């Protein structure tokens, strides 16, 4: 369900971040770029786990920002098909269920993908 993915990325660090410690500034930029985003073939990015290496620090003419090649690991959420996940029920209606594992609320199970033993009984008080 959770994986560490090793990534190498060329990162542009804006000048206003250069007064911060380098690791802190780079981690902040990586988080703004990758956190809460789905990366193809990797999954949903949950966290920057660590920074393995930082190379470069080049300033290109007319830019003012420094550019680094950063190797880092991300914690990714990528459940396999059929995996059982513990989640809280957020919403239930005749069309299906909306669930939350705690760190996001966007798991939707349509009624046609539910087991045949499941059925929906609408709340008569709710219209």
From TrEMBL:
Q: Which UniProt keywords apply?
A: DNA-directed RNA polymerase, Nucleus, Transcription
Gene Ontology terms: biological process:
transcription initiation at RNA polymerase III promoter
Give the primary localization class: nucleus
Domain RNA polymerase Rpb7-like N-terminal: residue ranges: 8-64
Pfam families per UniProt:
RNA_pol_Rbc25 (PF08292), SHS2_Rpb7-N (PF03876)
What InterPro entries would the database entry show? Answer: NA-bd_OB-fold (IPR012340), RNA_pol_III_Rbc25 (IPR013238), RNA_pol_Rpb7-like_N_sf (IPR036898), Rpb7-like (IPR045113), Rpb7-like_N (IPR005576)
Query: The RNA polymerase III subunit Rpc25 domain covers which part of the protein?
Result: 83-121
Per UniProt, subcellular location reads as: Nucleus
Annotated coiled-coil positions are none
Q: Which domain of life is it from?
A: Eukaryota
Give the CC-aspect GO terms.
RNA polymerase III complex
Family classification: Belongs to the eukaryotic RPB7/RPC8 RNA polymerase subunit family.
Task: State the protein's purpose.
Answer: DNA-dependent RNA polymerase which catalyzes the transcription of DNA into RNA using the four ribonucleoside triphosphates as substrates.
The name of this protein is DNA-directed RNA polymerase subunit
What species was this sequence derived from?
Vitis rotundifolia (Muscadine grape)
